[in-house]
Fold this sequence. Notes:
Elements: H1 6-9, E1 13-15, H2 22-33, E2 40-42, H3 46-58, E3 65-69, H4 73-76, E4 79-81, E5 93-100, H5 103-106, H6 108-116, H7 121-132, H8 137-147, H9 149-156, E6 166-171, H10 175-190, E7 194-199, H11 202-210, E8 216-222, H12 227-232, E9 237-254
Helix pairs in contact: 7-8, 7-10, 8-9, 8-10
1,1-dimethyl-prolinium (PBE) binds at residues 17, 21-23, 68, 174, 176-177, 202, 219, 221, 225, 249.
Amino acid sequence: SADKTAGEMVDYKITGIDPGAGIMEATGRAIEDYGLDKWELQTGSGAAMTAALKKAYDKEDPIIITGWSPHWMFTKYDLKYLDDPEGSYGGEEEIHTIGSLDLAKDKPEAHQILENFKWDEEDMGEVMVAIIDGEDPEEAAQAWIDENQDKVDSWTEGVDKVDGDEFKFVYVAWDSTVASTNVMAKVLEDQGYKVKMSQVEAGPMWTAVADGSADALLAGWLPVTHKTYAEKYDGKFEDVGTSMTGVKIGLTVPEYMDIDSIEDLKE
Ligand code: PBE
């Protein structure tokens, strides 16, 4: 009812994702920064979170989730970020491509393509929405490439083809990362690489690139989201390039909820 506080409406529960995600660390920080002592951040997965969101949204029930953009959830539902006056979630984030220290020397062609790789929220959104609408990730990636050959050509222009060299991506099953990794896997395959994609958790993703057991990851969210990982492995990876700017993380609620700021959770 209208006189309940946000906390009472959602049982003081924030629906989170996998524990290694940077947004989980940022949410722990928000709980401290805003003095949300009664609140609990629940861990799960991106898929479990969007399932909970759908269930709540269909009934106009209250829910508070850990959201990020680009994400298809902002296309499918009317959602808003809660204001973050304390800056617990940083501001504008960027998505960086992180390579192993040997990448430039061992696989210069892939390194050049990854350095050139830049796209925008709309591009990634097309791939993400196709996947959530039921298309196989590989097919969704191929369809996007077919329709955006100019953009792909600008990444590969002047780069020599290779002959079956192996290339290993590590990625986490975040919908945004599934989209980018599938697209770049296809691009590198077209260049002649034999590409392997290993799905892991966030910590092991950074570890694999830092110890050289993987060549690259496409989901280095900086400067805030993955700051802890970037500092932990400082000097053990190459920041190859920025694939997208103006991305964001934060607490997210349906528009029909009558709160606007993380400060409103204190009541
Ligand atoms: N995310 C998507 C990740 C980075 C990419 C926002 C869920 C995270 O929080 O670590």
